[in-house]
Amino acid sequence: MFKKGCTWQRDMIFFTTLEMSFGEILPFPDEIQYLILGISVTLFLVAFCLLIWQIYHYCTHLPVSQKTADDLTAKSGGFQYATQTRKAKMVHYEELDHMSHGLSPGSSYSNLGSCLDLASVADPEEEHIQGSLRFSLFYDQLQSRLVVTVLDAQDLAVRDFSHSVDPFVWVRLLWAESEDEKQSSHQCVLHEWQTRLVKKSCSPVFGDQFSCALAEEEVSRVTVRFEVRDFDKYSRHGILGEARIPLNSLKISYPLELKQDLQVPKKDMVGEALLSLKYMPTSQRLEIGVLKIRTVSYPNKTERVLYARTSVICNQCKLRHQRTTQKRCWEVTVFNEVLTFVLPDQQIRECSIIISVYEQHPANKSSKHLIGQIHLEKGKTSENEHWNLMMQSLRQPIAKWHLIYI
User: Distance of alpha carbon 182 from its chain centroid, rounded?
Assistant: First the structure.
């Protein structure tokens, strides 16, 4: 009995001391102390549950994948599984190789001929042409003027990333050397205009009217080309489609309103140029010779000058450019100028060259406008031939005629 009494006294002293210590550590009322203790226990349990969940997640994913691979190897004897893995890799490499050939300059796009540039071929907007354009034509016989009015467009395609479109219309009057449509002849741009910009509208209303002086006997040689574009402030304007109408089959002595579905844009042949190429691998120099340029001149057009601007582009980035001197425009304008570019061997194999031909009035420097362009790159039929001849005949100039398109 005495020992039991001593043990009870010791226990009482221990709990009293523990209570006094806890009270000294947390000098709060009993209710607050129990609340803090409960919160601490709850946080501990939550942390413990999270730890258990992480361990379970790790154990159920990585080992299962490893186990699946081991089972497949065991069932197939190891060799079959490895063979299937190699086949899957080979299929993947073949798909990548097929995609790279599809995007390379030597792909099937080369069958389209030299009338299309890479920018137009690679443009995804041309794959799905939709929408229509409404316009009116009228030839005023009293004033000998052609009046073109762009009324509106409907159901235009939108951009994928912004789901909107900012359309405007570029109008060109193309004059042909021959009235025979079956005969392939060069053309020239008599006039070109641009409508106002309508922002964020798939069915914009323009109502812009343009006019120019035109002799009545020349009307049958004119084709009106409407090119609907999507305005882009920071890059090249997108092309939504085009509509064109030759005037030789229309009676426009009275205002005639027409509506046409938009079609895939086509390039028009506006001339040809004699160019020479020479590459010197030791000095890594590419020499581009602009020898002669043949363009179509409208009979009543005033005196004008021509010059060519040559740009070297690699990976869609313009590296450098040069231009020829201005020459008075004749039926065949002779330049005989050589433009030299210093390019490393890797760039010469990947670059493309764009020759842009401009027309300008001698007295007005701001009157220049683009006549057409020539794209020299290895991904096209005729240009590829010229390029190959240059690479096969190093240090020797190779000359060839190229068509100019707009």
Answer: 34
The alpha carbon of residue 116 and the mean position of all alpha carbons in its chain are separated, in whole angstroms, by 14
DSSP one-letter code for 164: -
Beta bridge partners, 145, equal: 140, 213
Q: Which two tokens stand for residue 202?
A: 């798939």
Q: How far apart are CA 264 and CA 247, in angstroms?
A: 20
Instruction: For residue 312, give the amino acid letter.
Output: V
Cα 381 to Cα 135: distance, rounded to the nearest angstrom: 37
Sequential DSSP letters for 102-155: HHSTTSGGGGG-TTS-HHHHH-GGGTS---EEEEEEEEETTTTEEEEEEEEEES
Q: Is the dihedral of CA 146, 149, 155, 159 positive or negative?
A: positive
Distance CA 157, CA 161 (A): 12
Distance CA 129, CA 262 (A): 7
pTM above the 0.85 mark? no
Which tokens belong to 274? Answer: 């004699």
Percent share of the chain, pLDDT over 70? 72
* Nearest to 131, CA basis, from 201, 192, 197: 201
| pLDDT tens per residue, range 176-203 | 877 665 455 678 888 999 999 999 999 9
Rounded-to-integer distance, Cα 335 and Cα 273, Å: 10
Write the CA distances from 289 to 41, 122, 308, 344, 363, integer angstroms. Answer: 86, 28, 11, 19, 27
283 backbone φψ class: left, alpha, beta (φ>0; ψ -120 to 50): alpha
Separation of alpha carbons 385 and 258, rounded Å:
43
CA angle 76, 82, 85 (to 5 degrees): 115
Please tell me the predicted confidence (pLDDT) of residue 380.
Answer: 56
In this predicted model, what pLDDT tens digit does every residue of 53-105 receive, in sequence order?
888 777 765 443 344 334 434 444 444 434 444 433 333 333 334 333 333 33
